[in-house]
Amino acid sequence: MSLWDNFLSAIRGMPVKSIGINVPLETGYSQVRDVLTLIDAICDVYDNLAYEPLPDGTTFCNLAVQAVCGVMGYKEFAGLTADQIVAKMISSEDWSPVPFENAQNIANQGSLVVAGLDGASMNQAHGHVVIIRPGRTCYSGKWQQTPRCLNIGGENFIARAKRGPLKGLSCGLNEAFQELPKIYVWRQSL
I need a surface site. Which of 44, 59, 72, 99 has the fewest CB within 10 A? Predict the structure, then answer.
């Protein structure tokens, strides 16, 4: 039975089978709705050509994160840069830090999880933010089991790298960041 079949079974109130990841599908419609809403929002952003990098190098990670967060009900990132989004997560009581090793499981439960670093931490002019997406972790020589993410930036991906050292291979935070990012969950989505 596929992940999608399990979601549909859960929505219809039918018994579900274990799918090998820690998504508590038996918890009822509201939990499944949140996972489905999160997946749909991520796919909509990924498929939207407006988020493709421009020839001049301009990228849109902040707008992508704002779009997904807005669909999930959090609209406080509107108009913010990546640096400002990271600062807001650090200072706001709406967001709680998440240990790296827990990020994937929390996203798999339908919670809104955002990872990011400000430009100063990256030694760059601008920071970077991503959404941790539901799914399975992937292996990284850099960080071992790595959460999957929606990355909108120099390269847009949700599963496999299109270029660089991991071209065609599974990627996640390992390709989105050189240094381990700060990871936060929107408390209201827990």
Answer: 99
pLDDT-derived band at 187 (thresholds 50, 70, 90) equals very high
Give residue 168's pLDDT.
85
Q: How many helices (H) and strands (E) does the chain have?
A: 7, 7
> 3-state DSSP call for residue 72?
helix
Q: How far apart are CA 114 and CA 65, in angstroms?
A: 8
Measure the CA–CA gap between 140 and 134, rounded to whole angstroms.
Answer: 17
Phi and psi torsions of 129, nearest 5°: -135, 150
The pLDDT of residue 179 = 94
Contact by Cβ (8 Å): 67, 78: no
Comparing C-alpha atoms, which of 125, 50, 53, 62 is closest to residue 88? Answer: 62
CATH code at 42-189:
3.90.1720.10
Q: What number of residues does the chain have?
A: 190
Delimit the domains of the chain by residue range. Answer: 42-189
Distance CA 38, CA 72 (A): 7
At 99, is the secondary structure helix, strand, or coil?
A: coil
The model scores a pTM over 0.90: no
